[in-house]
Amino acid sequence: MIASVRGAVLHAGLDRVVVEVGGVGMLVHTTPGTAAAVRRGQEAALSTTLVVREDSLTLYGFGGDDERDMFEQVQTVSGVGPRLALAMLSVMPPDRIRAAISGSDIAALTRVPGIGKKGAERMVLELRDKIGVPTGVPGAAAPAAPAASLWREQVSEALVGLGWSAKQADDAVTRVADGAGAEGDGGTPNVSEMLRAALRELGR
Questions:
Q1: Rounded CA gap, 20 and 11, in Å?
Q2: How confident is the model at residue 152 (pLDDT cuts 50, 70, 90)?
Q3: For residue 127, what pLDDT is reported?
Q4: Class of residue 85 by CB neighbours under 10 A (exposed 0-12, middle 13-18, buried 19+)
Q5: Which helix (H) or strand (E) holds 43?
Q6: Greatest CA span in the chain, whole angstroms?
Q7: Integer angstrom CA distances of residue 161 from 39, 148, 178
Q8: CATH class of residue range 4-62
Q9: Domains 4-62 and 148-202 share a fold
Q10: Which fold has domain 66-127?
Q11: Where are the domains of the chain?
């Protein structure tokens, strides 16, 4: 098991990064928030888990052990695989997932693309007594925001990758930008926050 990687970032994409470890570039699949937090040429340390299949070895990386542990725990539910587990962490941080499951918040869980009402109910049934309660521990510092001309594209691509159409994604991003005045103050918004806001729009 590869529990963590540390090294220079060779590439940072929308939902994946390449980290050089001992002269080898390791492709690590991440949430958009984690990918946005690293920069090419800088050192990154990621908690990881290796998913082994007959025809593939896929490495998933996270900003901390709590995200990795949640990624692994939700996959103990029948019907939940790595892709869906990663989508959950793209939409909600670990404490929000704990709160939704322990509080039987089906509506919150079904905002994740790929989780229907039955799947959410099964997740609550199987994990409610195992998931624990929200820790209330503040998350890591917010990642540096991308340039204003870039954040819309990153959030739209993330939404498309999570299952929505390009038009739905663009419309949601526009509503979020207008509603928050994201570009009106000369600053650059945080891509993770904008992604979560867009997902809330789409979940209405």
A1: 9
A2: confident
A3: 94
A4: buried
A5: strand 43-53
A6: 51
A7: 21, 21, 23
A8: mainly beta
A9: no
A10: DNA polymerase; domain 1 (1.10.150)
A11: 4-62, 66-127, 148-202
The CA distances from residue 87 to 6, 76, 83, 131, 148, in Å, are 24, 15, 6, 18, 24
Helix (H, G, I), strand (E, B) or coil at 136: coil
24-29 and 16-21 beta bridge pairing:
antiparallel
Q: Which of 175, 183, 178 is nearest to 149 (CA)?
A: 183
Count other Cβ atoms within 10 Å, centred on residue 107.
Answer: 11
Model confidence pLDDT, tens digit, residues 91-140: 889 999 999 999 999 999 998 888 999 999 999 999 988 887 676 544 43
What are the start-end ranges of the H helices in the chain?
32-37, 65-74, 82-91, 94-102, 106-109, 117-127, 148-161, 166-180, 191-202
Tokens of 100: 């939704």
Class of domain 148-202: mainly alpha
Report residue 26's pLDDT band, with 50, 70 and 90 as the boundaries.
very high
pLDDT in tens, 69-86: 999 999 999 999 999 999
pLDDT bucket at 22, cuts 50 / 70 / 90: very high
Backbone angles phi, psi at 190, to 5 degrees: -80, 125
Closest among 28, 34, 33 to 50, alpha carbons compared: 28
Q: Which residues contact 49 (CB under 8 A, 6 or more apart)?
A: 1, 2, 3, 59, 60, 68, 71, 72
